Amino acid sequence: MGAKDTPDFDKRGGLITAIAQDHETREILMVAYMNAESFQKTLELGEVVYWSTSRNELWHKGESSGNTQVLKELRVDCDGDAVLLIVEQKGRAACHTGQRSCFFRVRDGEGWREDGEQVFDPAEVYGK
Amino acid sequence: MGAKDTPDFDKRGGLITAIAQDHETREILMVAYMNAESFQKTLELGEVVYWSTSRNELWHKGESSGNTQVLKELRVDCDGDAVLLIVEQKGRAACHTGQRSCFFRVRDGEGWREDGEQVFDPAEVYGK
């Protein structure tokens, strides 16, 4: 697989999976999607730009909250349909709920319990 | 979001994203998919069972190679369309290429360089 056909955006209809991992704690912060344009923007800016599949638009992470993700390293997987973004998370929180990581619920028996770190109050950051 | 509607398999046509992370090194090993059946099987077995989108069948990771993933912890993200699998990787390698992690290529300028750990020779493990 050469540099030009990586990532392979055609494999899954134009999108690749993008996983954000904290560069220091190695915690997984979130997972979202990128298209070719957002991938290029991310490399140009040095900050993570996803593709929002709900709004169908470029999503420069942290534009609203200030919690941008500064790109430290970018990796691609063996079949080219996913990237791993090693980032510095500004504001210490990636999740729109104010949790540090979007993966703040852990399986416990037949259900889930919360096990995260509430960093900010979303009402204060995003307003009403 | 209650226990019964989590994960939300309906959100993206029956599949959720499943990220495997090593429980000790916190390295991201691979990313794949799960449907409701593979999610249930994973909980029952205590070993990771993905849904193969190329073969359209259950994929008990490590069935061929012996490199199973023993589930240590399972987390779900805020909107329920992704899970994080904290695993013990048997055989020390997750990737079918014999690399420890599928994310063995790192962005370097305009291209990619390999930066991984070759654990096994795929020709020996999978045969011809």
Describe the structure.
Two copies of one chain form a homodimer. In chain A, a hairpin with a 2-residue loop joins strand 7 (105-108) and strand 8 (111-114). The model of chain A has no long low-confidence stretch (mean pLDDT 93). The longest helix of chain A is centred in the N-terminal third of the chain and has 10 residues, at 36-45. Chain A has a domain at 16-92: Phosphoribosyl-AMP cyclohydrolase (Ubiquitin-like (UB roll), Roll), CATH 3.10.20.810. Chain A has helices spanning 36-45, 122-126, and strands at residues 16-22, 28-34, 49-52, 57-60, 69-76, 82-89, 105-108, 111-114. Chain A contains two helices and eight strands; from the N terminus they run E-E-H-E-E-E-E-E-E-H. Chain A is globular and about 40 Å long. In chain A, the strands form three sheets. A four-stranded mixed beta sheet of chain A has the order 2-1-6-5, covered by helices on one side. Chain A is mostly beta strands. Chain A binds chain B through residues 3, 6, 17, 19, 21, 26-28, 30-31, 43, 73-79, 82, 84, 95-97, 99, 102-107, 110-112, 115, and chain B through 3, 6, 17, 19, 21, 26-28, 30-31, 43, 73-79, 82, 84, 95-97, 99, 102-107, 110-112, 115. Strand 5 (69-76) of chain A pairs antiparallel with strand 7 of chain B, so a sheet runs across the interface.
